[in-house]
Amino acid sequence: MDPMQTPVDHDVVIIGSGFSGIGMAIALQRSGRSFTVLEKAHDIGGTWRDNLYPGCACDVPSHLYSFSFEPNPYWSRAYATADEIQDYLLYVVEKYDVRKDVQFDAQVTRGVYDESLRVWHLTVLGSDGVETHLVAGAVVLGVGALHEPSLPDIPGLETFAGEVMHTASWDPGASMFGRKVGIIGTGASAVQAIPLLAEDADHLTVFQRTPAWVLPKVDPEYPDALQDAYDKRPWLMKLHRAKIRTANELRAIAFTRVPALLKAASAGAAANIRRSVTDPELRRKLIPDYTMGCKRITFSNAYYPALAREDVDVETEHITGADARGLVTADGARHDLDVLVLATGFDVAGSYRHLNFTGARGHDLGEDWDAGITSYYGVTVPHFPNLFFLLGPNTALGHTSVLMMIEAQIALTLRLLDERDRRRAGAVQVREAVAQAHMAALDRRTQRTVWIAGGCDSWYLDQFGRNRVLWPGSVPEYERATRRTEMVDYEFTGSRASVSSSR
Predict the structure, then answer these.
(1) What keywords sit in the KW lines (predicted)?
(2) What is d(CA 351, CA 253) in angstroms, rounded to the nearest whole number?
(3) Closest by Cα among 422, 415, 334 to 380
(4) Which residues pair with 430 in a beta bridge?
(5) Do the Cβ atoms of 137 and 499 come closer than 8 Å?
(6) Which of 74, 148, 396, 427 could form a disulfide with 350 if both were Cys (CB 3.0 to 4.6 A apart)?
(7) Residue 45 has what DSSP assignment?
(8) Element (DSSP H or E) covering residue 201
(9) In 201-319, alpha helices (H)
C-alpha cells in the first residue's frame, strides 16, 4: 500500500491522562492536529487520582505544581494535597474541553511499528474484554514512571491472612482503628502516611529498610484575601511563582555540582532529629549514614513525633519471611499484624515494559530498557520512530516541579512533528549515535552528583549503578537544550501517511 494513502485514525495517540497526557492534548488541540487520549482507568488523572493513602500530598510548592499557561490563584496552602491537585487537573480538562477526546477504560496492550507504512498499530483492551485496533501516525507515552507498584520479595507473603495494600492502590474505605498495622518503607509515601496511621492504629510497626532525611515542612494556609489578590493581580501570582522557582533551582547546584553543601545541610537535619526524638536508641535508628539528597528528601512536621509514640515501633532488622499471622525478622522476632501496608515505591522500568511495544527491526521496548535504555533528552529513543516519551529517562527531578520538564518535552515533540511534516517525511527518530553520546555525557555529569557520591543505593539508579531517572542539571538548562536541539540529530524517513476521514 502507498504510505500516502494509508488510513490513519489519528495524527497522534496519547497514552495516559495525567498531567503529561492532558498537557500534550491541549498542545495538540491548539496545533490543529487530530488526536485521542487512551486512559486505562475510568476517569482523568494519574498519580493524583490513584494515590489515596492517608496524608498524600505534593512535596513541591503548589504554585509551581501547575501548568504555566493555567496558573491557579486558589491553592489553599503552600503544599497541596492529592485531592486538591486532582481537582485542579479536572478543572483544566473542563476548561479546555479535553474530556471529549479521552477514551476511558482503554488499556493499550500492544503497540507495533509498521516499518513499511511508518505508522503504529495499537491494540486496545476495553473494560468489557473486547479488543479494538487503532492506527496512529505518532504515539506519545504520557504514562509516567510512578504507577507500577514495586512489591517486596518476602517468602510466604501470600499466606498472610490479614489485609495487604500498597500505598499506590489504597482502599479509601479501609479503617485502621483498633488494628495492628505494619508498614514497610520510609520513603516519601510512608513519611506522609505514618503519622495518620499511628493515630488510628492500635499499634504500628514501621519496618525501616533505610532511614530517610526528613526536614521540617513550612506549609502555611493561604488566606482568602491572598487568593483573591492572586486572582485580581495575576502579575503578583506570577512573581510568587518565579520566586519559588528561583529558590528551588538553587538546590540543583547542591544536588548536581557541589554535594558538599548537602553534607553541611545533613548536619542540621540530624540536629532536628535529636531535637524531635529523645530516645537515644530511636535516634540512632533514624539518622541516615548517607548524604542528604542521595535519596529523595522528604518534608514533615509529624513524622518524627509519630515514631516516638509508645504505640509505634521502628524495626530495622531484615524481614526474612511471612506467615498467616504476620512478618518474621532476621533476629527471629515475630510481628503479628492485622494489616500490612507496602510503601515500597514503584517499578520504573515496569512502567514501560508492560506497554509491550515493538519498534523498528523487532526492538522490544522492555528489553531495551532492561539493557540500559538509551534516549535523547528523555523524549525520543532509537529504533522507535514516531514514538515520544513525556517524563522519560533522565527527566525526573529531585529539587523542583516536573511540570516544567513536561512542558519543555511537549514543545520538543511538537517541533519534531512539525519538522517531519514540513519535510513531507513519514517518520522521525533520534540517531542512535547521537542518543548514545548524550547518555555518555549524562553518565559523566552524574558522577559528581549526590546520587552517586552520596553513599546510598536508591531507585534512581539502574542495575548497573547508572542514573536513568533524574536530570543532572537545572530546569532552565534543560529548557534551553530542548529548544536548541538540532534537527540533524534526527532521521526523517519515508513519506507521510494520510489521516482517515472516518476517525
Answers:
(1) FAD, Flavoprotein, Oxidoreductase
(2) 29
(3) 415
(4) 490
(5) yes
(6) 148
(7) B
(8) none
(9) 224-232, 234-256, 260-276, 280-286, 303-307
Note the pLDDT tens digit of each residue in 343-391. Answer: 988 776 666 667 889 999 999 998 888 887 889 999 999 999 999 999 9
Half-sphere exposure of 97 (CA within 13 A, CB side): 2
The helix (H) or strand (E) run that includes residue 503 is none
Residue span of the structural domain in which 123 resides: 3-148+347-499
Which DSSP string corresponds to 173-191?
Answer: T---TT-EEEEE--SHHHH
Distances (CA, A) of 253 to 80, 398, 451: 26, 12, 13
Is the Cα torsion angle 344, 346, 348, 349 positive or negative in sign?
Answer: positive
| Neighbour-count burial of 308, counting CB atoms closer than 10 A to its CB (0-12 exposed, 13-18 middle, 19+ buried) | middle
pLDDT tens per residue across span 74-110: 999 999 999 999 999 999 999 999 999 999 999 999 9
Same domain for 310 and 325? yes
Closest by Cα among 436, 462, 22 to 470? 462
Q: What is the DSSP letter of 220?
A: P
Q: How many helices (H) and strands (E) does the chain have?
A: 15, 22
The C-alpha angle with vertex 229 and arms to 223 and 231, in degrees rounded to 5, equals: 105
Which pairing describes strands 163-166 and 490-493: parallel, antiparallel, or unpaired?
Answer: unpaired
What tens digit of pLDDT does each residue of 196-225 get? Answer: 999 999 999 999 999 999 998 999 999 999
Task: Give the position of cell 499506590.
Answer: 168
CB 84 within 8 A of CB 57: no
- Residue 8, strand partner residues: 499
CA distances from 125 to 103, 109, 343, 351 (A): 11, 7, 29, 17
Q: Which of 288, 312, 342 is the last residue of a domain?
A: 342
Spatial separation of the C-alpha atoms in residues 347 and 189, rounded to whole Å: 15
473 touches 257 (CB < 8 A):
no
Tell me whether residue 308 is in a domain.
yes
CATH number for the domain that contains residue 458: 3.50.50.60
Q: Within this chain, do residues 55 and 193 fall inside the same structural domain, yes or no? A: no
